[in-house]
Amino acid sequence: MKTQVKSVEKDKEVLKRAGLKNTPARQAVLSTFGTGCLPLSAEQIYQSLKKKYDLATIYRILNKFERGELIRRINLKGGTGYYELVANHHHHLICQGCGLIEDFSRCGIENMQNAIIRSSKKFNEIKGHSLELHGLCKKCS
Amino acid sequence: MKTQVKSVEKDKEVLKRAGLKNTPARQAVLSTFGTGCLPLSAEQIYQSLKKKYDLATIYRILNKFERGELIRRINLKGGTGYYELVANHHHHLICQGCGLIEDFSRCGIENMQNAIIRSSKKFNEIKGHSLELHGLCKKCS
DNA sequence: TAATTTTTGCAAATAATTTGCATTTAGTTT
DNA sequence: AAACTAAATGCAAATTATTTGCAAAAATTA
Fold this sequence. Notes:
homodimer, alpha+beta, Arc Repressor Mutant, subunit A, Dna Ligase, domain 1, 3-stranded antiparallel sheet, 5 helices, 40% helix, DNA-binding
């Protein structure tokens, strides 16, 4: 369908802007993130692509994307890395009891970035941030 | 000296409050964090304790401490987990170029927690948060 | 289309973290 | 204080997470 074509075009564009080659594997990873806000691990992407690409390739792509500011690694439970699209900027409330995650978006950090930069001795520029709130969900509290 | 004794007493107290047994290994880990704001990895703690305790033990202690809300895992570069004392609440500016880290503390999140909880459907209570800002240091920008 | 540079697949290496089990230890309990 | 019990530790081994070397395949460039 048309939307499919469009999104491929868009992905191509996205990759080019980030200075990255346009390859099927990269398109596939991008489209796995899709428009959703779900954080994904390398393993999840691998499974979700029906193991069509090598896990090492997924890792390499994620690293490239991270350096290209397309995605950002975030902190969920455990040692596994999760990534989400920088474009879908939002945050998480994480339940310390059961691991439940709820999204929220208005964090107000942008309003403070100027103040933070002004008071910083070593930094010039803030490009983004990651914020997780830890607490208890209604069931666990 | 007296301060040494005091800090051991305090650590004991801290452990008890968290419902954890007071052991030499746990004291040692606590005192490795000390009063500093440095985030530490399991490996760093292991080295810093002159390998006096097993690495597996360090990991077990860190996990206990995390569940007991004594420390919190944070997001630095790479896949390694870093921890810092919850008591030393602060945040990091992380350079995307060279990995340089600068601390800052006034983040203003506390002011927004009420608003966030009110707008949340699933959560009752916020206990803490972790925030990292990504940007470019003066050298890299 | 040939040339050049990157990317991918595969296998293997390395890093990070967890687990099983026997032994020791901390905090009771008698 | 000796005995008791639950939990903590050490050691080795297992998992999990991630990276790397190298040859083959694919993407941009000339």
